[in-house]
Amino acid sequence: MSSVPPLVECVPNFSEGRDPVAIRQITDAIEAVDGVRLLDVDPGKATHRTVVTFVGPPDAVAEAAFQAIRVAADVIDMRRHHGEHPRMGATDVCPLVPVAGIAMDAVVALARALGRRVGDELAIPVYLYEHAASRPERRNLATIRAGEYEGLAEKLRDPAWAPDFGPAAFNARSGATVVGARDFLVAYNVNLNTTSTRRASAVAFDVREQGRLKRSGDPLTGPVVRDASGEPVWEPGLLKAVKAIGWYIPEYGVAQVSMNLTDLEATPLHTAFEACCQRAEARGMRVTGSELVGMVPLRVLLDAGRHFLRRQQRSVGVPEAELVRIAVRSLGLDDLAPFDPDQKVIEHRLRSGAPAADPLVRLSLADFADATASESPAPGGGSVAAYVGALGAALGTMVANVSAHKRGWDARWETFSDWAEIGQRHVAALRALVDEDTRAFNAVLDAGRLPHGTPREAAVRDAAVEAANRRAIEVPLEVMRTAAASMDVMAAMAELGAAEAVSDAGVGALCARMAAAGALLNVRINAVNLRDRDAARALVAEGEAVMAEVEARERAVLERVAARMAG
To answer: How far apart are CA 560 and CA 566, in angstroms?
Structure first.
């Protein structure tokens, strides 16, 4: 069973993008539910639609979704609604998305329970889609929404389109709502240097999975080709798991290819962008940038950043922030408005306003030194050892990146990029251990403060103290293991790296050895407090073996560095 607390994202789309008071009433209902975090509110005037993103524990998210749908039914009147985006109800669609610690099956059950409640308590017709769909033909949102609000009354009279929940009767004010469980969906618009909806639609038909109707003769006006059963034949588009339409946005004065990417493994964001670029150019247009609607997982931008760096034959082993910056610039995400990763990336948004999980590594160098020099026993030698190890791995990574971009070494860039990626992983692991060491030390103190007046309390405290002491040994051991692994990068760079940076590989090896030596001191001092003496001896022996390996590798790296520096 997963130890990660279950976390679900909800991304409802409301058919209101122009009245800030109505939008605020909906989001206030969401924020009133304990445990829910409102991450993003993205209104669009031209589309007359607002995409809201919030996360939290499953039951809290379902409650917040219901309250938002309830308020939307009060403040939105579909009889007066007109906008560019397809829609069929006040709350047009309400997907639930597993984020962490919860399986899709559980989210499906959550979505169906939410849909039933909306139908029963609010008398709104509810259809289920994607993984929660009650039948295969209703899995696709576009199929359910065909005919939109204007065709809903007729659809509800068709027994084949009876809603999954709620009355099979037309609710003129609220329309119908589609509730589902799905994987991450990215709503993504690519901007074109044209005002022509028809030309934008042509690009959309080129790239979307469904493609376009096959016609004989003229591809635009010729008769539709039909199969032996009389069904129209479709010519599939370029991209799997992509839905797309073309539209014109007066607010921006541009036409866009508006896409939903429903499977980021099948079609990553950067693949969709480049396909649009290619098809636009083939049709005499160019892409000027793009726009993310709502929020995205961090990996979407990291993958894009790596893709564009590889296209340039540049190292992808750069810090996370640099990958994001490259992605934003390459995709033109700031073409229409400033793009703030702290507001648009789910992981960044969750961190903002929350207590830092890694407060020490977020300090400046001066503040870290001051915190270490204070009268508090933490941070101490264990955290400092981990940080020095991170600096060592960072130096090895720097040599790899410098070498990847060395003039005349273009054919070798990928080798160095691979080493830089490995180095970045070691840097990240050792940085995380800076704060983990202090947490382990504080856990020992906390365990020692537990009450122990009764035999039962004493037994509980003793067990907690033993577990905390063991953790205080395991963390510095992990520092040692990671520092030893980081020696691979320093050894490779001492052998292969640019001559002008080879001394940095040597300094990196010195840092790795210091990190391991400092961590071993922590292993030894904390092992004294472990009641299980056999375990204590085994842990110390493991640390000493790792230390011997690190010292041998340090000597080899320094010898190679000296030889290369001597010419």
So the answer is: 10
